[in-house]
Design a protein that fits this description.
Structural class: alpha/beta
Number of helices: 25
Strand content: 15-25%
Mean pLDDT: 77
CATH topology of the largest domain: Spore Coat Polysaccharide Biosynthesis Protein SpsA, Chain A
Number of domains: 4
Radius of gyration: 34 Å
Number of strands: 30
Shape: globular
CATH architecture of the largest domain: Alpha-Beta Complex
């Protein structure tokens, strides 16, 4: 296809889009039938332009995105814009038409129009170029384009591939040498050193240059680099440029004492020195830096822009990433949403290579689903924090789950120009699942946000980056604040997850691994999902050791306590086959369970019958409110700071008779009470409940112990209580047992 054909093709489609746009502005209703065709014509014009004119392509792409954001609501201004595009394309047609194709070589940003200057007609340089690659076909496809239009090209190009999927040899030019290196069992995670050593076994020349598979190089790169190294044994660029295609940001830094890229070794001494560095550093980290600092021969850091490369970094391509800081974000990067710096560094049609081949595949498209039920007042702060994200969400959907005043939710969403769907109340899980079905198909990450959180501005970017560095992980879970309390988790451990949940609902999830939440659960739905993914599909998460959001403490959650314990029973039953071996072998438990109704009635009757007026309770929950209702003073010792704050708020009406104290084992303060009640599994001496019993045995004459899981096994008097205690009463199930100090040794009688 020649230039004229490209522009004619673009003009034809813009003209068709213009005609369609005129027809969708009737005097009354809009004709919906024309809308898909209109977008289709614009997209066809984009495809024609992106392979030749990057500026026009980007402008048309931006216009289409704007049109789609307005749900293709055509106005007279759209007619004028399309007319402008038509004129821009028409006037951009060059006077001298030459044959072009996406691999056309460039010099100083201008198209080569002279066939005698093609790389095929220039004598190759006596130099060996080495490119190490593996499992990065997108990057390598552009590397092929760059090398085939290099003028002059290297006489030897060694391509070492150790990826799981070999490169198609038919795509490699005849003058290049493909070396397939199979991975070895003792290979480190990064195999650059071994690949370079493999390439050095095939050298034909005493001059070596390293070509990275994800860097851009000027077509005169080799000629200019050799010119700089005429009197030196090693050479590299003084200034290094990186452009992050995903984030649309760039970074430049100067090398003072080391060289990080664009390295040329100019004689056997330099080559051997670099070979020794590769042997010394099999892990591949800092090879060029180590070489540059240790090499004693003559060396130079040049400032020739035509002999400098640009690191084109991207995330989300699903391929093996690097370990250097250039592969990650940095506060020192500068945002460039209009790609001005990229067009300054690269010719426009070569920018289109990256935008057309890598760009669309590397963008993180995050879909945010927010269920709301009678809590619209919390929504505004969350939406503001979403607006400030350094990696903005691609789509946000709010699901009002039958709020009493759904109009309030809708009004807030309209203020932020966010889609809101109001529907009857079916529960938060149903709302989340429904929201996921409304997210666009091209969204590749899901984020289920509670409406009462405020995100850190770097939350999405940090979680996304970590997932890119851990392609095998299905989701990223961060630390967070609840009020002023910092919740810091730990690395993923399946054995720990089977015992307790340490992963927040507000995690960034790869859409391809997400499954609907279990709508039978009122709470702990995230825990069930993480367990299901791990136990049934061996999908794990990666931990971000950073507080990604802050959750507000809000009232109305005491009713969730019983639901939480019921959920634990439900989850354990659902995955029972995965727990049997662990329970029999390690005697581990999944969670503390709420006291059952029979045991609670038994406990309350005992308190009333013995006219007990003060109770010390280890752990708060369903029993706390019931004991208070018996006109008892209650002191609750709670290790969970967040839950302690919730209990103070929810039971504020009992503030004269309720004392909630935050404490940590083994610190046991002195308290005055008649009766001690300990609720929860007692199966392990390392468990705090066991320590509670030992404490109670030294301070109380009456101790009630409840264990919903192993009443016969765990309530071992000899193990937990002194010989001074005897069993007074117990329920038929044996879950609740009340012990008293033997009369002969008791200081106080009942």
């Amino acid at each position: 296809m020649n230039n004229q054909d490209v522009y004619d093709h673009a003009l034809a489609h813009i003209a068709a889009a213009l005609a369609l746009a005129k027809r969708v502005i009737p005097e009354s209703d809009v004709d919906l039938d024309f809308r898909p065709d209109l977008l289709g014509e614009i997209i066809e014009a984009e495809y024609a332009l992106k392979m030749f004119d990057g500026n026009l392509y980007l402008q048309l792409l931006q216009y289409r995105n704007d049109l789609q954001s307005r749900e293709i609501n055509i106005t007279p201004s759209d007619i004028n814009k399309l007319r402008c595009f038509y004129l821009l394309v028409e006037t951009a047609i060059p006077q001298n038409i030459v044959e072009i194709d996406p691999l056309l070589p460039l010099v100083s940003g201008k198209t080569l129009t002279s066939p005698e200057k093609s790389s095929e007609n220039v004598e190759p340089l006596p130099i060996t170029a080495i490119t190490c690659t593996g499992d990065r076909p997108i990057q390598f496809s552009i590397c092929l384009k760059i090398m085939t239009r290099m003028i002059p090209r290297p006489a030897q190009w060694l391509i070492v591939d150790d990826g799981n999927t070999p490169i198609d040899r038919n795509s490699i030019p005849e003058w290049a040498e493909y070396i397939r290196r199979e991975r070895l069992p003792d290979d480190p995670s990064m195999t650059l050193s071994r690949n370079i050593l493999t390439a050095m076994e095939h050298l034909k020349f005493d001059r070596v240059v390293f070509i990275e598979d994800d860097d851009w190089y000027p077509c005169t790169y080799l000629a200019e680099l050799i010119k700089e190294t005429k009197d030196y044994e090693a050479c590299g660029a003084k200034t290094r440029h990186y452009f992050q295609l995903t984030r649309k940001s760039y970074r430049c830094f100067r090398n003072k004492f080391s060289i990080t890229a664009s390295l040329l070794l100019n004689n056997p001494a330099a080559i051997n020195a670099f070979r020794h560095v590769c042997i010394e550093r099999p892990h591949s980290k800092g090879l060029d830096i180590k070489f540059w600092r240790s090499f004693t021969g003559s060396k130079k850091l040049h400032s020739n822009k035509m002999a400098a490369s640009v690191g084109m970094k991207s995330w989300g391509t699903g391929q093996r990433s690097g370990f250097s800081p250039s592969h990650r974000t940095s506060k020192r990067q500068t945002f460039d949403p209009e790609l001005k710096k990229l067009y300054e560094w690269l010719p426009s049609n070569e920018v289109a290579w990256y935008l057309g081949v890598i760009g669309p595949k590397c963008v993180a498209k995050i879909g945010v689903i927010i269920p709301v039920y009678n809590s619209a007042q919390y929504l505004i702060d969350l939406l503001y924090s979403l607006e400030k994200q350094t990696l903005p969400p691609y789509q946000i959907i709010v699901i009002d789950d039958g709020s009493d005043n759904a109009n309030e939710t809708v009004a807030i969403c309209e203020k932020f120009a966010i889609k809101c769907i109001a529907r009857p109340h079916f529960g938060a899980n149903a709302a989340r699942n429904f929201g996921a079905t409304q997210i666009s198909e091209d969204v590749n990450f899901l984020y289920f946000a509670d409406c009462d959180i405020i995100l850190d501005k770097d939350a999405f970017e940090k979680m996304f980056n970590l997932l890119e560095q851990n392609p095998d992980a299905g989701y990223c879970y961060p630390n967070f604040y609840v009020g002023e309390v910092y919740k810091r988790y730990h690395r993923f451990k399946g054995s720990v997850l089977k015992v307790r949940n340490f992963i927040t609902m507000c995690s960034l999830i790869r859409r391809k691994i997400w499954q609907p939440f279990d709508e039978e659960l009122k709470c702990s739905q995230d825990y069930e999902l993480w367990l299901r993914l791990y136990l049934e599909y061996n999908i794990f998460g990666v931990w971000l050791d950073y507080p990604a959001f802050r959750s507000k403490i809000r009232p109305g959650r005491i009713s969730d306590v019983e639901s939480a314990f019921e959920a634990c029973y439900y989850i354990r039953t659902k995955f029972e086959k995965h727990y049997a071996a662990d329970i029999n072998r390690d005697k581990k438990i999944i969670k503390s369970f709420v006291i059952d109704d029979q045991s609670l009635d038994f406990l309350l009757n005992f308190i009333k019958k013995n006219k007990i007026k003060s109770v010390l309770e280890f752990g708060s929950g369903k029993s706390t409110q019931e004991i208070l209702a018996c006109d008892c003073d209650v002191i609750t010792l709670e290790t969970n700071t967040i839950w302690a704050e919730t209990m103070r708020s929810e039971l504020a009406k009992y503030k004269d008779r309720l004392t909630v104290i935050d404490y940590k084992y083994p610190d046991m303060p002195e308290f005055s009470a008649e009766f001690c009640f300990i609720d929860g599994p007692i199966g392990s001496l390392s468990n705090g409940r066991a320590a509670s019993i030992k404490y109670a045995a030294t301070k109380f004459n009456l101790v009630a112990i409840h264990d919903a899981q192993r009443p016969a096994e765990s309530l071992n008097i000899k193990k937990f209580l002194s010989n001074e205690f005897e069993l007074l009463e117990q329920t038929d199930s044996g879950m609740l047992k009340i012990f008293g100090r033997k009369i002969s040794n008791s200081k106080n009688k009942l």
